[in-house]
Fold these 4 entries.
Entry 1:
Amino acid sequence: MGISGSKKVISHGLKHCTLWKADRSPPCRAVMMALDALNLSITEVDVNMDKGEHRGPELAVYNPLQTLPIFKDRELILNDSHAITSYLAARYCNSGKFLPKDPGGRAIIDQLMHYDSSILYPRFRAAAYPILYQNCKYVMPQQVCAIECAYRDLECMLVGRTWLGGSWPTLGDITIAATLSTLNVMVPVDPQRYPRLSSWLYRMSEEIYYITANKKGLGEFSRRLGELLEVNKRVTC
């Protein structure tokens, strides 16, 4: 997966696993980055969300919520990116590097994932969906303010830390990076106002799994948004 020829050789091929995904989706890219970080290769199926393929009867059997990603490992089916990445790390990676084995370390990663699922991603969705699907031509001022508040949260979380999840990047960093890099397209992270967050995002952008599994889909999202947005109508708070 990712960009062909630009990453390390995959050491674990899981032919019994399938991922249905759309590259421009942040949750899908979180799973894709986790797979590359964990050195796992699985069967991938691209789904065209613009054509409503994720709502088709075949995928509805796997996910009644009609969202992506969808992950299948033999008889197990998971539909939430946070659950998928945690499962992959716990089931197929013994090192504990990306998902610590000790309860305290694991709780920190869970906390970051809950922040993404309850705060960061909903703010992305509230800002992006009106543009993508409702003919809105700019990021609404209230959404800009909500995103800026999240940036302030993350800036505070990084006090005294290089990475959000600990001494090195973890699944928590990967999850936040997928959403934050996409938010950054709509409401840029100002390095003057958020120096720690800006530096963290830059460091994440240099990780090989970010390059192989996030960069392409992020570019697709940026191009799509550029076709729809009226630039220079953003505000800050």
Note: Confidence is low (pLDDT under 50) at residues 2-10, 231-236.
Entry 2:
Amino acid sequence: MSFFKKVFNLSSEKPQEKEAKKQEVHLSLDDAFVHNFLEKGGKFLYCTKKEEILIHLKNIISENQWDELICTNPELIALSKSVAIKTNGNLKQDAPFFTTCEHLIADNGDILFSSNQLQSERIASLSDHFIVYATTSQLVKNTGEGLTGIKTNCKKNIPTNISSVKNYTLNKNEDNFLNYGNNSSKDLYLLLYEDL
């Protein structure tokens, strides 16, 4: 019976059901980001209190049995000391990288970084494991808004090395020839703090 439906384009769907499927769904920035981020394999932890950040950070470290973090941000170094884990400022180490970011891109779930976090290193040359601390005020609709935000926030000293993590599943192959030799796949945890 389904063969005849395909051949003669017969459908058992009602016109209202067809119309409902055609309608576009508009998500808020945070919902769109979380949906796209999770689709790419990211691990998302939402925090409404500073204490929750510490609890989640402890759980991530314990779950993965890590004994050291790479961290260059003074505020995050202080945060990691309260979790009682050793930190190292050398980005070349193989320990997980605990960092901030510039923006969270809602329309594709990417996380935008710059030399403020990465210094002069390429994402591909850094650790396979990232823990990113971000706030809801860093959510933007698309990459263009993210770049505008960087330009606005850093008027006197615009950072370089602007790049993003696009995949949150290690060893995922991309067919995009523009990314050849620059694999930005990372096992990534996002600690998102509600600051609005």
Note: Strands lie at 43-47, 68-70, 86-88, 97-99, 103-105, 111-113, 129-135, 139-140, 163-165, 187-193.
Entry 3:
Amino acid sequence: MAYEFERTQRIAVLGGGPGGYEAALAGAQLGAEVTLVEREGVGGSAVLTDVVPSKTLIATAEATNGIGEAADLGVQFFTRSESGRAVRPEVTVNLAAVNARLMRLARQQSEDMKSQLIKAGVRIVQGEGRLDGPQRLVVSTGRGAAGTDFDEIDADTVVLSVGARPRILDTAVPDGERILTWTQLYTLQQIPEHLIVVGSGVTGAEFASAYTALGSQVTLISSRDQVLPGEDADAARVIEDVFKRNGMEVLSKSRAASVTRTEDGVIATLSDGRTVEGSHCLLAVGSIPNTAGIGLEEAGVQLTDSGHIRVNRVARTSMPSIYAAGDCSDFLPLASVASMQGRTAVFHAMGDGVTPIELRNVTSNIFTQPEIATVGWTQKQIEDGITQGEVYKLPLASNPRAKMMGIKDGFVKLFARTGSGTVIGGIIVAPHASELIMSVALAVEHRLTVDQLARAFSVYPSLTGSITDAARAMHIVN
């Protein structure tokens, strides 16, 4: 008796960022034949030039801040002069060493991810890839004498994870020396004397915060009424107050018309004619998906007006055999979301059990000092009547652990469904808010009530105590 065995499914992944990496691992885990195409290195820009290096830089900035604020806790640093007198030392940052370390960590993370893929049985092809129809990739490997060798990869399923790149202004062209995108900052050998940051969104605010802590004079140009437009108004107000208290100049309702290089620095001209002179300028004005010229339209993949790939909640595009994950898609541009999209895409393609991604359950974090972590519905959505909910805000200043640590800024804010008390969202503004938000995220994901959240034991004293205190204050009377 002859048996017919089903052929092993073939998965081709274009782009080795968080989404592509997780898609490849998931495919290998489910027994597929997986090929990953990446032009730079596994991890993509998230690991090599974006998330890993930027958050490593921010960790150094936090350490610098901690030393500067230690005196408030009674810790003082002195050295001895030749005469034996106590002299307060100057805290300095060796930016060349910092950048060398963070790029080394980025390469190490990339190599670790590559090793994991190889161990799982994933075939890795280095080169420039593009679609040749809905089930084929053509990869220019550059291995031939003329650099024109090609690999053709046929697949049952294609996962696109090609990422995005910094948006460039025609009137502010980066030169990699004085006018920089966030991917070019890591070549700097010295702390900028005066850094002009154009753009007060997440990227601009994070780098403005970090370089202020590292010792730069920083001018932040914001086209909106407040920094971090679109974020919780109370959180943005706290961050802007901290920025100004730390010596940052924030130019609100100001738009940069151009940035040009001078003999020994840069000059930013605003739309109202004012000028700002500095030593360096960081452009943080958004990003553009890397979707042009890779055969998407020819393969029948629908794009948005901005060039992002349209996907549904399981990361599937308009073509059944093609999925997309990460910043190239029209979903939320977060590394954690890209990873979840990559896994979800492959599970769905191979018929495994899958839960469609619910964006309202996604946690996000802004790595300023203090951090802003959010999950679920927002206060504005409640105030606009989009959903019904109650709001409770508890300043961190009342938290005993915060007092011990010298924390003066920040709060915990919870949102609960009117009537039932189900937790539908929350915001934490605090040091390491990215670690504190997890308990609120679990409450949102599993539809816990404020009473159920309050019954969890938080350590005393701890910053998480403010979460259970806020939940307790929202008690639903039965």
Note: The first helix runs from residue 18 to 29.
Entry 4:
Amino acid sequence: MDTNAVLDIGLQACVIGAKLCAPILIVALVVGFAISLLQSITQIQEVTLSFVPKLVAVALALLVSGHWMISEMVTFTNDLFARIPGLLGGG
């Protein structure tokens, strides 16, 4: 196994990690920004007003994009297992 193969696997792992985190992080960012904007307009400073909507939105994002996330991880894992013989020099 050479250095380029290790770097390629590491790069693919970082890319897949970023792709899987993106929907959840973007939803949390948008909802958090909207709630903080609402709080600053109305001057209501309640902690649960920020936490609960973000929790619900992230749960919905996981519900909507969960199947895609799992299929991406399964594809990545299958590709890694398929590359094992080539990485070990067997073919």
Note: The chain has two helices and no strands.
